[in-house]
Design goal:
- The chain is an alpha+beta fold.
- The chain folds into two domains: 3-80, no CATH class; 101-328, BirA Bifunctional Protein, domain 2.
- The protein is 41% helix and 21% strand.
- The chain has a seven-stranded mixed beta sheet, with helices on both faces. A three-stranded antiparallel beta sheet has the order 2-4-3.
- A hairpin with a 2-residue loop joins β7 and β8 (245-254).
- α1 packs antiparallel against α2, α1 runs parallel beside α4 (47-80) and α2 (20-31) packs antiparallel against α4.
- The protein is rod-shaped, with a radius of gyration of 40 Å.
- The chain starts with a helix and ends with a helix.
- The protein binds 3,4-dihydroxyphenylalanine.
- 3,4-dihydroxyphenylalanine is lined by residues 162, 164, 204, 242, 244-245, 275-278, 299-301.
Length: 331
């Protein structure tokens, strides 16, 4: 047997094979048990021709393997037509959802207060007028009792216009001290505008214990504003009125956009009003059976949409309800 002639012949047979099946037939012919080469290897007696033949066998095996891979690849490509692909590539990641901005902010505010040792309490969106109005010290003729402001379901049952009713529910159910926040939806009969929507969210806060003062309220709200808007923020109180607090104050935070220099968002005042607060009116404490001589408290209520719009520069409250992913995905 002439190894060179055999190699030339086998290599051209390998190149000529046009399918894996054909190639296999050639492999049997040139490398199979009954092949000339195997025969020669069995009969070899000297070291040198053994090495020559083994090297030839190895070269042919490599050539067969290479040709087989090429033929199988071509076969696969034909099967798939134009759309051949690499199965080892990582897959396309399916788009994943995330929490709505208002939910994110709700959780953020809850976390801030949990960090201060407050309890997070759920309130009911459907309330009775006693808990929403009377117990909160609202006079019988108070404007928000009007069906022009409040959505009545029937008789004394209403959709809550503020989360403050949750204060009453919690105080009724336990003795002081109380440290709680309650976050959720409120409903008002309002026209829909860029800054108004008849459904929105509030965070209600309440602390009642012995010796609570306005200083405690200010320190707590300062902590909230710094955690939420940034460590450099200041807070300011200005006089206000709410039936359930005395004194009542309006909470403002130093403008985090212009740092107090004056800009459109803060209407060139350097301050942004965030919501109402004050010391719990003694009448409210009495309504829940607490003794205003023994305990005092503070309360506050802030709109979540409002702080979301301020912090993220959202120009229109309706965006929160349209559920356009191009908007939601930004947060
Ligand atoms: N309930 C008020 C509102 O919806 C906000 C508020 C003001 C809540 C003063 C309070 C408070 O707890 O003490 O406008």
């Amino acid at each position: 047997m002439d190894p060179n002639a055999l190699e030339t012949e086998a290599q051209s047979a390998i190149a000529a094979a046009s399918s894996p099946d054909e190639l296999e037939q050639e492999r049997v012919r040139y490398l199979g048990r009954k092949s000339e080469l195997k025969q020669a290897l069995r009969e070899v007696r000297d070291r040198e021709s053994g090495m020559t033949l083994n090297a030839l066998r190895e070269r042919l095996e490599t050539a067969f393997a290479g040709r087989e891979e090429a033929l199988r690849g071509a076969e696969l490509e034909q099967l798939l037509g134009e759309e051949s692909f690499d199965v080892t590539l990582p897959g396309a990641e399916p788009p994943r959802g995330h929490y709505h901005l208002i939910t994110q902010i709700r959780r953020e505010v809850e976390d801030i207060f949990v960090g201060l040792g407050y309890e997070v309490v759920d309130g009911d969106e459907v309330e009775d007028t006693y808990h929403l109005f009377d117990a909160l010290n609202m006079a019988p003729g108070h404007v928000t009792r009007s069906p022009l402001h409040t959505l009545y379901l029937n008789g004394d049952t209403v959709l809550r216009t503020e989360t403050s009713a949750s204060q009453i529910r919690v105080m009724e159910s336990r003795e002081p001290p109380v440290y709680m926040v309650s976050l959720g939806r409120v409903y008002r009969r309002d026209t829909i505008e860029a800054k108004n929507f008849p459904i929105f969210h509030q965070v209600e806060g309440l602390a009642v214990a012995e010796g609570i003062t306005l200083g405690d309220l200010k320190g707590t709200l300062l902590h909230l504003c710094r955690a939420f808007f940034g460590e450099d923020q200041q807070v300011r109180f200005s006089t206000d009125f709410f039936p359930f607090t005395e004194p009542s104050v309006q909470l403002a935070v130093s403008c985090f956009l212009c740092n107090g220099a004056g800009c459109r968002t803060c209407k060139y005042t350097g301050w942004i009003e965030l919501g109402g607060s004050g010391l719990v009116d003694p009448n409210v404490l009495r309504n829940v059976g607490y003794d205003p001589e023994q305990v005092s408290g503070f309360a506050f209520g802030i709109g979540l949409e409002r702080i979301a719009m301020l912090r993220h520069g959202v120009p229109d409250i309706r965006l929160f309800w349209e559920n356009d992913l191009r908007f939601l995905a930004q947060f």
